[in-house]
TrEMBL record:
GO terms for cellular component: cytoplasm. Residues 132-166 form a coiled coil. Pfam families: RRF. This is Ribosome-recycling factor. SUPFAM superfamilies: Ribosome recycling factor, RRF. The gene is frr. Belongs to the RRF family.
Amino acid sequence: MAKEIIAETENNMQKTVEVVKKEFSSLRAGRATPALLDKISVNYYGTPTPLNQLANISVPEARLLVIQPWEKTIIPEIEKAILKSDLGINPSSDGTVIRLAIPQLTRERRAELVKVVKKKAEEGRVAVRNLRRDANDAVKAKEKKAEISEDELRRVQDDVQKLTDKYIKEIDGLVSSKEQEIMNV
């Protein structure tokens, strides 16, 4: 029973770290990457549809994204969706493809991005700690019902704490690498 709690907690902590990684990949660090457009939804015949399901997205140069829609009629909708997004990039279209030139980041913008990275990382750390609390509560409830011994309770709590430390350390590593990526000119 205790092993199930530990396994479930570890699985949820891994998912939390994956969410943090995904959040970081969608942050613009001065380099073009298709992940920048992951959160953009386009109004496609009245249905919000992810941009990557409507077009081919390529990176021909370090600071250029090219969006090639499968239907030419959807280009104005894609441009609207990009302008509405928080990317701060103006799309340019020639009727067949949309080009997004990724501007060089200013020092102020880099500092803002680092703050956003730290905020998202802290949200991830809080989620990991909440998972620790939930696991500890579940084990304490089992101990109260005399389903496990007090020694096993301590052992499981130690294991859960080790997991918590491991995943928080992993999030910290992600933060430092993303921070370096942002601050490199």
